[in-house]
Every structure is written in C-alpha cells, then in structure tokens.
Amino acid sequence: MLYSKVIFMMALVSYDVSVTDTSGGKRLRRVAKACVNYGQRVQNSVFEVDVDYGTFLKLKNELEKIIDKDRDSIRIYYLGNNWKNKIEHIGAKKTYDPEGPLIL
Questions:
Q1: Phi, psi at residue 12, to the nearest 5°?
Q2: Residues 6 or more apart in contact with residue 46 via CB below 8 angstroms
Q3: Which residues face 16 on adjacent strands?
C-alpha cells in the first residue's frame, strides 16, 4: 500500500481592498472571512496560513473570485515548511504556534 505524506506550507496573505463604494466593504468582509477560514489573523489585513498545497490553492481561487482585480490587491508570501526560521515577532500582540494544539 502506498502512503503519501501531506506536506504543509506556511504562506502570508495580505490584502488591500478598496472601500470607496458599498461593494468594496462587502468584498473586504468576504476576503477577511475566507482568510479566517484557512488561517490566523496576525495583523488587520494579514493572515498566516499553514495548510497543504491543495487547500492553499482552494483559498487562492476563492480570493481571486472575490476581489476586483482593477481596484484591490492581494499579496502572497510563500514561507514554505521551514517558516519558523523566517518569522520574527516583536510587540504587544500575542504570537501563536499554528502547529500547536487546536482549542475550540
């Protein structure tokens, strides 16, 4: 029997949604909700997402469908699976371990 190991990757997703009209506010909420479903908010418009590649592609596809590509932007930084050496936190907001226990 073949077993495939699922490899998780960390990505940083940031977004800037134009809210100069009422549809912008709706897009902003939808982008934030999509990101919350897959990752952890670490700044107002920044999420750390630690998922397998297939799940990440699903999130990316959702975001592409939500935004207005002429007015909004999404930036994705791929940190890979060695992300712990690439993130440093300074300041008041508590940090978290995305690989730690999940408490509901």
A1: -105, 120
A2: 12, 13, 14
A3: 73
